[in-house]
Design goal:
The structure holds two protein chains of two kinds. In chain A, 46% of the residues lie in helices and 11% in strands. Chain A contains eleven helices and four strands. In chain A, the strands form two sheets. Chain A has a two-stranded parallel ribbon. In chain A, helix 3 packs across helix 4, helix 3 crosses helix 10 and helix 4 crosses helix 5. Helix content of chain B is 31%, strand content 18%. Chain B is globular and about 55 Å long. Classes of the chains: A mainly alpha, B alpha+beta.
Chain lengths: 198, 209
């Protein structure tokens, strides 16, 4: 550690010591380079995130042809906007309607469509979310601030194999004539997971 | 394996804690571990099922009390030690102790790991039941749907079954389906009305009804 600028550095936690040990061993052996690590961290911290998915959703809202292509082949449609990569080979978009609300979970681990949403938030990976969303979705959604009326069917998608799901939310009311970029700014990560409405 | 990672439907975990404006990584080590895992898994020729299974093999207490990126750290270190790319002693010496996952079980399972199949036997709308799959290694058939009846909602391309991919450097293909289960079938008539769960399943987990 080299961040000691005249004051006492914070002692490393156990997990930080382990992470440092693994990084040292792997870089010394030439298995992973520091440059590679920096590049990946920067890509996921800056370039790969829900702003990508928001562009996909906004395009689907303004372009009916694109919407159809997105619902028919999610991976091909997101590739049209330049998005793809790990965890993006089998993207399926599921569309919210006045009758159906979709929500995504991974009960076995934390599968998530990285190219369009980035890395998942902590709550998505947590035991409470993973255990409860399949069992009491309406109650959990309400707890998370997303009230789904009783007459709207809730479809939970447990991404247990190859497919990664993206929720296509309903376009908000009174947005006729709003431009694509402004629409994208209305699309939240949570709406694309299905725990919020835009 | 019927491990602690198979969380669907379990009770008692309490509320979902949401952190507003959460950063992608909370600490430097998280992002670096994420990147290291990607690089090291590639260098060692490990696939995603192998990595997932290494995480599932963590001590259950450790799994439930550690963060996602600590799972990644433990899982990737376990695979690298098992492949003798690094040594457990080196990790321990540098870190002052480095808990790894438990060894792979070699117990027999009842998933056919020999026969490849690329032709889907079921079609959209077909009723199916999930077999009572028992497999001590890596499987993607969650506990909460075993023995339950559902309807095929989507037919996907054949994909390599995790029961083989996680354990041998081979691929045995099987068609994939999205199967729709009504909430009442999973959780009894006392469950929430007007809800269903779709689960993506390999054909060999399913039987006709």
């Amino acid at each position: 550690m080299s961040d000691d600028h005249g004051h006492n550095p914070r002692p490393l936690s156990d997990v930080e010591r382990r992470a440092q040990a693994l990084e040292e061993l792997l870089t010394e052996k030439g298995i992973v380079s520091g440059e590679f690590i920096d590049r990946v961290v920067e890509a996921f911290a800056r370039d790969i995130g829900p702003m990508n998915g928001a562009k996909v959703v906004a395009r689907a809202w303004v372009d009916p042809g694109y919407r159809q292509r997105l619902l028919a082949d999610g991976s091909a449609a997101v590739a049209e906007l330049g998005f793809g990569g790990p965890e993006g080979d089998h993207i399926v978009a599921v569309e919210n309607t006045p009758e159906v609300h979709n929500v995504v979970v991974c009960t076995l681990c934390s599968c998530y469509p990285w190219p369009v949403l980035g890395l998942p938030p902590t709550w998505y990976k947590s035991p409470p979310y993973r255990s409860r969303m399949v069992r009491e979705p309406r109650a959990l959604l309400a707890e998370m601030g997303c009230e789904v009326p009783e007459d709207v069917e809730i479809r939970v998608w447990d991404s247990s194999a190859e497919v990664r799901y993206l929720v296509l939310p309903e376009r908000p009311a009174a947005t006729d004539g709003v431009g694509e970029a402004e629409l994208a700014a209305l699309v939240s990560r949570d709406a694309m997971i299905g725990v919020a409405r835009p | 394996m019927d491990g602690v990672h198979d969380l669907g439907g379990m009770e008692g975990f309490g509320p979902v804690e949401v952190e507003p404006d959460e950063p992608t990584f909370h600490h430097d080590w998280e992002g670096r571990t994420f990147a290291i895992a990607g690089g090291a898994l590639g260098a060692g020729g490990f696939n995603t099922p192998m990595f997932r299974h290494a995480i599932e093999r963590m001590d259950p207490g450790h799994y439930l009390t550690s963060s996602y990126y600590e799972h990644w750290l433990t899982g990737v270190a376990t695979l690298l030690v098992e492949a003798e790319m690094i040594s457990c002693d080196d990790l321990d010496a540098r870190a002052g102790g480095f808990p790894l996952s438990r060894p792979v079980s070699d117990a027999a399972g009842d998933v056919d790991v020999a026969t490849a199949n690329e032709t889907a036997r079921f079609s959209v709308g077909d009723p199916v039941r999930v077999r009572d799959v028992q497999f001590a290694g890596h499987t993607r058939c969650p506990r909460y749907i075993r023995g339950r009846r559902g309807v095929v909602a989507r037919v996907d391309a054949a994909a390599p079954i995790p029961e083989v991919e996680a354990h041998r450097r081979e691929r045995v293909l099987d068609p994939n389906y999205s199967v729709r289960f009504d909430a009442a079938e999973l959780w009894s008539d006392a469950s929430e009305p007007n809800a269903c769960v779709h689960v993506d399943l390999y054909e060999r987990y399913l039987e006709s009804v």
